[in-house]
């Protein structure tokens, strides 16, 4: 559900404005509207420092576990100086590693030329003789040498990796008749290059030691980033106030949840501020905060990939949560894969210290449970059909086959869309009055009565009441609501015209949306087929040799099922989101919000 908000319009004396906001930040319950788009130089500097602190903490966390005896390092620097030392060392280390890679490559190339005197090459150039460096494979070199040896001075220097490195001596201005790409003349010898590498290694070790010693400041960098974030938020809030009365007063807007309004009222009453408290209007850009039960709250992580709902509308999370879990299981549709997700999710939920990772662990657990249940319903376990085993022969007729899954996907889609329409009708009735929900209720009545008369009742063995008075009464009521109650306050002819247009859009939309749910059937079937294929490959490609046969089977099964699990899990994660964000949200009348409730508070407390 969306937490109800209260709007506060406040007027504060300019001289008390900054102190007032600082106390409000300590209270930590009011979201101050940030209205200005300007960013001062101080704020840009704070943003840059926050980024440096976070990057430093993240990078140091990667090496923290490898650093022992950290307790022996004294923290004798303040955070700013420690951060500057780390940034300089990290920057120097990056440059040194790039230089090391470059010189290492050059050293490998110089190894082919061995040792020589650079000064001697310069003396030859002063005497008018130039040395040209080349490389060819052995076969081409022999051909080249036989062809040009009598005309040019060709000296073989070395042979490495089936390549010949050689030098051609000639006059400075001489033009060669042959066309070969010339190598760059070595500027240093191989020994000198090795010495340079040793020097760079020593410099790298020095900078790495500085970075290693900075690990003790990791928590300080995290705390500093939070403190700076608080300062940045406070600075933006200060700059958002609108001056009035020739700069003597400042007007600002804030928001608080209804359940904390008493504390906010006490704070404002104890200050010199004048304020007006009122309920939000549809025109306000009201911040949004969600409050759901433990189960639905897990799926807020998925909904954050889209956006939060607009204030004054319905939070879709409680309705989407069970269906997303259900759709995930439908897409994987294998008991073995579900068991893996169950174990991984439970492990993460119990062992992870981070709250976010624990939530993801529980989300994985519930999705794995749905997958396991679908695997049981279809009789599939790592691509093996349980109906083939004698143990499950008495119940094999109740397993869902591909035909049943096809129709089941359509039914699930239709029910999901009807739920979306129901949520839309509920939202309109709650926030705008029952008159605005009648058209949606009429459309639902037409759909439900038609499906009941044509499909459900005949399946129960009853007489089809398609032409009965009961059916036409319910069906006619639905049509009346659709055509004449879709725009309250307008005349019947406008309503009828809009009703015809909306009906056309609704009919084409509901058909396309329902067919979209066939992706659940397609993904579940493709995953099962691939699992079966890998099982067949493992048995068919294994040699008829004891031990080796079992080894090959295990390798193929392991690689195949891991690959299939990863691909299927990706589809099971993405496509239920697509069905939720496109089909369900559209039929539920979802409206996107633009602002998350972010109270002005001290995060580092």
Ordered list of secondary-structure elements with their pairings:
Elements: E1 5-13, H1 14-27, E2 31-32, H2 41-64, H3 79-110, H4 118-126, E3 129-137, H5 138-148, E4 153-160, E5 163-171, H6 190-213, H7 218-240, E6 242-244, E7 249-257, H8 261-269, E8 274-278, H9 294-298, H10 300-303, H11 317-332, H12 335-351, H13 355-378, E9 380-381, E10 384-385, H14 402-432, H15 438-459, H16 469-484, H17 492-516, H18 518-541, H19 548-587
Antiparallel strand pairs: 1-7, 1-8, 2-7, 3-5, 4-5, 6-7, 9-10
Distance between the termini: 28 Å
Largest sheet at a glance? 5 strands, antiparallel
What integer is the average pLDDT?
A: 82
Estimate the global geometry from the Cα principal axes.
extended
What structural category arises from helix and sheet content?
A: alpha+beta
Order of helices and strands: EHEHHHEHEEHHEEHEHHHHHEEHHHHHH
Tell me roughly what share of residues is in helical segments. Answer: 55-70%
Low-confidence segments: none
The helix count comes to 19
Cα gyration radius (Å) = 37 Å
Strand percentage: 5-15%
Give the beta-strand count.
10
Question: Can you characterise this structure?
Answer:
This protein is of the alpha+beta class and 605 residues long. Among the domains are: 117-185, no CATH class; 294-400 and 517-587, no CATH class; 403-515, no CATH class. The chain is built from 19 helices and ten strands. Strands 1, 2, 6, 7 and 8 form a five-stranded antiparallel sheet that branches. Strand 6 (242-244) and strand 7 form a beta hairpin. The model has no long low-confidence stretch (mean pLDDT 82).
């Amino acid at each position: 559900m969306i937490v109800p908000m209260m709007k506060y319009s406040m007027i504060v004396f300019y001289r008390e404005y900054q102190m007032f906001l600082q106390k409000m930040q300590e209270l930590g319950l009011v979201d101050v509207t940030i209205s200005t788009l300007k960013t001062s130089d101080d704020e840009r500097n704070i943003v840059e420092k926050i980024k440096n602190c976070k990057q430093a903490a993240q990078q140091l966390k990667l090496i923290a576990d490898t650093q022992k005896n950290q307790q022996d390092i004294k923290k004798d620097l303040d955070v700013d100086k420690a951060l500057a030392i780390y940034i300089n060392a990290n920057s120097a280390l990056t440059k040194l590693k790039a230089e090391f890679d470059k010189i290492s490559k050059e050293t490998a190339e110089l190894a082919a030329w061995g040792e020589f005197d650079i000064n001697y090459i310069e003396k030859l150039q002063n005497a008018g003789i130039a040395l040209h460096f080349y490389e060819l494979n052995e076969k081409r070199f022999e051909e080249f040498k036989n062809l040009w040896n009598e005309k040019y001075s060709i000296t073989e220097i070395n042979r490495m990796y089936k390549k010949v490195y050689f030098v051609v001596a000639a006059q400075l201005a001489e033009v060669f008749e042959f066309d070969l790409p010339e190598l760059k003349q070595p500027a240093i010898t191989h020994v000198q290059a090795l010495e340079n590498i040793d020097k760079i290694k020593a410099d790298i070790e020095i900078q790495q030691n500085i970075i290693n010693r900075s690990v003790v400041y990791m928590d300080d960098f995290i705390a500093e980033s939070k403190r700076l974030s608080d300062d940045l938020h406070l600075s933006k809030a200060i700059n958002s106030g609108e001056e009035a009365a020739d700069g003597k007063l400042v007007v600002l807007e804030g928001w608080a949840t209804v359940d904390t309004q008493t504390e906010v009222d006490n704070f404002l009453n104890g200050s010199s501020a004048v304020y007006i408290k009122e309920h939000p209007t549809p025109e306000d850009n009201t911040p949004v905060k969600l409050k759901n039960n433990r189960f639905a709250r897990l799926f807020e992580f998925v909904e954050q990939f889209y956006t939060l709902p607009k204030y004054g509308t319905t939070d879709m999370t409680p309705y989407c949560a069970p269906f997303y879990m259900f759709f995930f299981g439908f897409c994987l549709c294998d008991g073995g894969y579900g068991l893996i997700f169950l174990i991984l999710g439970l492990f993460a939920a119990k062992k992870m210290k981070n709250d976010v990772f624990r939530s993801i662990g529980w989300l994985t657990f519930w999705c794995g449970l749905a997958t396991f249940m679908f695997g049981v319903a279809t009789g599939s376990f790592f691509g093996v059909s349980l109906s083939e085993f004698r143990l499950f022969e008495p119940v094999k007729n109740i397993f869902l086959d591909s035909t049943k899954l096809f129709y089941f996907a359509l039914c699930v889609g239709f029910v999901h869309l009807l739920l979306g329409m129901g949520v839309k009708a509920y939202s309109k009735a709650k926030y705008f009055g029952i008159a605005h929900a009648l058209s949606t209720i009429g459309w639902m009545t037409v759909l439900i009565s038609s499906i009941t008369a044509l499909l459900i009742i005949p399946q129960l063995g009853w007489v089809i009441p398609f032409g009965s008075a009961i059916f036409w009464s319910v069906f006619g009521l639905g049509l009346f609501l659709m055509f004449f109650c879709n725009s309250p306050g307008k005349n019947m002819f406008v309503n009828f015209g809009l009703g015809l247009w909306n009906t056309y859009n609704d009919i084409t939309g509901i058909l396309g949306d329902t067919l979209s749910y066939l992706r659940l059937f397609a993904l579940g079937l493709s995953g099962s087929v691939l699992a079966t294929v890998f099982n067949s490959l493992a048995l068919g490609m294994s040699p008829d040799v004891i031990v080796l046969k079992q080894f090959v089977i295990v390798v193929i099964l392991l690689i195949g099922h891991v690959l299939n699990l990863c691909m299927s899990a990706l589809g099971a994660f993405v496509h239920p989101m697509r069905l939720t964000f496109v089909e369900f949200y559209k039929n539920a009348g979802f409206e996107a919000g633009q602002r998350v409730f972010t109270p002005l508070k001290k995060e580092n407390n």
